[in-house]
Amino acid sequence: MNEVVTTRFLLIEDPTVIGEEKDDDTKWWLDTARPLKNPEYPDYPFIVVQTEADKDANNFVRHAKMKLLFTDQAEYYAVCLDCYFAHSDQQWSGSTNQPGWRDRSARYLEKHITNKGWCQFCDPVFGNGGWYRG
Fold first, then answer.
1. Closest to 87 (Cα-Cα) out of 119, 58, 52
2. Which of 18, 31, 80, 82 is least buried, going by the fewest C-beta atoms within 10 A?
3. What is this structure's pTM?
């Protein structure tokens, strides 16, 4: 059986068409999994994402199971299970109080898994490296 290979992210060759400057340090991509209906950019009907120039957005790693890491009730990250267990002892360092934070954060995680799917800490393209473990 033949496998159909699709490319989720399409490189924008000329970022000036979306109002960004050409630059040697970054690339801009259309995320075809996230439609955007913006009349200002009818030729670009998808959310645009930015990567470092040496990264290919299509090399992200999708996770079906993720958890939230909390800094406080207003700041949290969607992370893979490995990152969760590596950093869970560092959670909850802040003191911000947010009404409805449990429901809001649960919706955020569900939406992140469905629409993005990458770990915000360790993903090779979109991850930020996580929290420092000194």
1. 119
2. 82
3. 0.82
